[in-house]
Design a protein that fits this description.
It is a single chain. The chain has about 70 residues and is an alpha+beta fold. The chain has one helix spanning about 5-10, and strands at about 15-20, 35-40. The protein is built from one helix and two strands.
Length: about 70
């Protein structure tokens, strides 16, 4: 069997974008949009409440706890 044929026959995982931090945000600190980025994430494993667009942060979003990158 050709490995390329097998790989193309494997169903693709549906992906979506979610926001993740690129640096640590301390509790009570303003979440600056420059410290987040959108990454591909398996659609069926998106954590509840995950943001998908920087506009969802609103004008002033504050951390409710220690937030770490990734």
């Amino acid at each position: 069997d050709d490995p390329q044929t097998q790989a193309s026959a494997t169903p693709a995982v549906a992906m979506t974008k979610v926001l993740v931090l690129t640096s640590t945000v301390e509790p009570g600190a303003l979440i600056d949009p420059k410290f987040v980025k959108a990454v591909d994430w398996p659609e069926r494993n998106v954590p509840e409440g995950a943001l998908k667009n920087v506009s969802e942060l609103g004008p002033k979003a504050y951390s409710r706890g220690l937030m770490v990158p990734g």
